[in-house]
Design goal:
single chain; 296 residues; alpha/beta; Rossmann fold; six-stranded mixed beta sheet; four-stranded antiparallel beta sheet; globular
Length: 296
């Protein structure tokens, strides 16, 4: 997959089938240092470090010397208004945008500038904004796309069946719709599907871009609860991009606030949530962005 040339935040991420590399070939091409067996299972938790990252589109600098650390099996919330650089950050980590400078380290190994396919094989799964299911495929066919990043030879039938069974056990609503076209799913079910597809790849790091966007409050709560379980019970390192600051900080271990491509605050989530001055400033520029959207 080539890096997209479109504008960063407003256009919405288009990501490798929404599975951290859904276009990755299933031929087992090597991804340097990727762990796991031929079925992509058994991966340990991994830390993710972004150092002094600079990235953009044409003449536009969307990220300017951004540094973020996500500890293994933790949740890091990335907050900011539209255009702050949140989506571009995830794109740069997952290989969809090539950084101009800086580094992306997975468990200390430099992965900067690798392709989305290599990043997926290394264990980074990217769920882009916008419920990016393939509407013409069934639920199960969408899930099978997540297996394309498995290393080694073609996965055994038993491995494929086990991965699907795990997905259906975690997302019961999808089990009932497995033979239905993805186009028939509700918004909440589509969000479940893109996350389930990413998890089929058995990632070590999961990048979630606005997973609660457009969801009813009840479904949003379910998604946030699931994010917590993935980190606490499955040991997945999660970078969560959200405009819902309160909800994101309530489940995160650490938080980072971006503004115009720069980190303006980084601390443990509780500290950010109780910082009155920062909260007022953050809510202020969110309100400004909303007013601009209405004006246009």
């Amino acid at each position: 997959m080539s890096s997209p040339a479109g504008p960063p935040e407003a256009a919405g991420a288009q990501g490798a089938g929404g599975a951290g590399g859904g276009s990755a070939s299933g031929d087992g091409a090597s991804g340097d240092g990727a762990s796991g067996d031929g079925a992509g299972g058994g991966r340990d938790a991994a830390s993710l470090v972004v150092e002094d990252l600079v990235a953009g589109y044409g003449e536009v600098v969307a990220l300017d010397q951004v540094t973020i650390t996500a500890g293994a099996a933790t949740i890091t919330a990335v907050l900011g208004a539209n255009g702050a650089g949140k989506t571009t950050l995830l794109r740069a980590i997952s290989g969809m945008v090539r950084p101009r400078s800086g580094r992306v380290l997975l468990d200390g190994a430099d992965r900067t500038g690798r392709s989305p396919e290599d990043m997926a094989r290394a264990g980074i799964a990217h769920v882009p904004e916008g419920q990016g299911v393939i509407a013409e495929l069934t639920v199960e066919e969408n899930l099978r796309i997540g297996m394309m990043s498995w290393r080694g030879l073609a996965p055994r039938r038993a491995d494929r069946a086990a991965a699907l069974a795990e997905a259906y056990d975690r997302f019961g609503a999808l089990a009932d719709r497995r033979r239905k076209l993805a186009s028939t799913l509700s918004g909440g079910e589509r969000q479940m599907l893109v996350i389930a597809r990413a998890l089929v790849a058995r990632p070590r790091v999961l990048l979630l871009d606005e997973p609660s966007l457009g969801l009813a409050p009840r479904i949003m709560t379910q998604v946030m609860d699931m994010v917590v379980r993935l980190s606490r019970e499955n040991g997945i390192t999660i970078v969560l991009v959200e405009q819902n600051a309160r909800g994101a900080l309530a489940i995160a271990d650490r938080g980072v606030v971006l503004n115009l491509g720069r980190v303006v605050a980084a601390a443990d989530a509780k500290t950010l949530a109780t910082d009155v001055a920062l909260r007022h400033h953050y809510l202020g520029f969110l309100a400004g962005a909303a007013q601009e959207d209405r004006a246009t």
